[in-house]
Write a structure and sequence with these properties.
By secondary structure, the chain is of the alpha/beta class. It contains 11 helices and 10 strands. The strands form 2 sheets. The chain has an 8-stranded parallel beta sheet with strand order 3-4-5-6-7-8-9-10. A two-stranded antiparallel sheet has the order 1-2. Helix 2 (52-62) links the parallel strand 4 (42-44) and strand 5 (70-75). The chain binds adenosine-2'-5'-diphosphate (A2P).
């Protein structure tokens, strides 16, 4: 039984969801269908992942009805001034007429008329940011699609404290979540403290440290694994879950998809206060640091990471 977390708008969200970033279209159909059959009820998607149609196919193949699922997607940077249009594409891709949760993917509006529909770049190779567009106006459009009933909750992703404050000054509705890269080597303690003060729930993407992760073999993680007879993923996911953070582990491997759901819950129930304090300290003083800036991803995502 996967626990649920109550959001600041009163809605409930399953605390474990399947991540789909970096899942290849040909792999994600089976991954999603398998996950839902294995008991997942929460799927984390994005227009920018380029695989939403395949996620939609996986949902259909699972045979589980839409009303039983919690589906999140995200507004891509080139669409900040056209929220409803991007959302409509996402809804068509996924084959649904509403989302449970819609997020601003990055707090960086990109030029909608740039040299590329997804990653527009300037001649000098820097990201082509739409400096004239105000983030607060993107949030206003997010509020509008919520009021129209096309989405049930709205939130943000990859927002620093400064970016959250930027929209909160004019927001009518507070974001329910801020989805961040969160794991033992990138715990973002200060930002989480600020979010707690605003009742904004954290969601963790790359909770295992993403592909080729060194976290699974970290000496402290392995020592806790041995102490409790858990798997490394159980410790990494359980650590976040025990702290009230929604976890979105990505996998396209059926055995891992199944294991991560039960493992996250088992980990959160097994880890002691001392284990959590030990894991909290792993990234202290820059001893261990890892973030998407350093990941060997094929997308030019590093352009978006310096969000300050
Ligand atoms: P794969 O998708 O090939 O199964 P994150 O959620 O931090 O982004 O991590 C995703 C990466 O971790 C993927 O490379 C995924 O591989 C791998 N992974 C997912 N679950 C596990 C697990 N239980 N044990 C080891 N590696 C895993």
């Amino acid at each position: 039984n996967v626990p649920k977390i109550k959001l600041n708008d009163g809605k409930e969200i399953p605390a474990v969801g399947l991540g789909t970033w970096q899942s290849k279209p040909e792999e994600v159909v089976n991954a999603v269908a398998h996950a839902i059959k294995a008991g997942y009820r929460h799927l984390d998607c994005a227009w920018g992942y380029g695989n939403e149609k395949d996620v939609g196919e996986g949902i259909r193949q699972s045979g589980v009805s839409r009303s039983e699922l919690f589906i999140t997607s995200k507004l891509w940077g080139t669409w900040h001034s056209r929220v409803e249009e991007c959302l409509d594409q996402t809804l068509a891709n996924l084959g649904t007429d509403y989302l449970d949760l819609y997020l601003i993917h990055w707090p960086v509006p990109l030029n909608p008329k740039g040299n590329h529909p997804v990653f527009p770049l300037l001649p000098d190779g820097k990201r082509d940011v739409d400096h004239a567009w105000k983030l607060a106006d993107t949030w206003k459009q997010m509020e509008d699609v919520l009021k129209k009933g096309k989405v049930r909750s709205i939130g943000v992703s990859n927002f620093s404290q400064a970016k959250l404050e930027e929209i909160l000054t004019t927001a009518e509705i507070t974001p329910v979540v801020n989805q961040l890269e969160l794991h033992v080597y990138n715990p973002q303690h200060k930002l989480l403290e600020f979010m707690k003060s605003k009742n904004i729930t954290p969601q963790a993407y790359s909770p295992l440290g993403s592909s080729n992760s060194p976290l699974l073999a970290d000496a402290d993680v392995v020592s806790i694994v041995e102490q409790h007879k858990l798997q490394p993923a159980d410790v990494l996911l359980g650590y976040l879950l025990a702290k009230g953070i929604i976890v979105l582990p990505k996998s396209v491997t059926p055995a891992r998809i199944t294991a991560n759901l039960a493992g996250a819950v088992r980990g959160s129930e097994t880890l002691t206060k001392a284990d959590i304090e030990r894991l909290d300290g792993l990234a202290a003083a820059g001893k261990q640091k890892r973030s998407c800036l350093l990941l060997p991803v094929t997308l030019p995502i590093a352009h978006f990471c310096s969000i300050g």
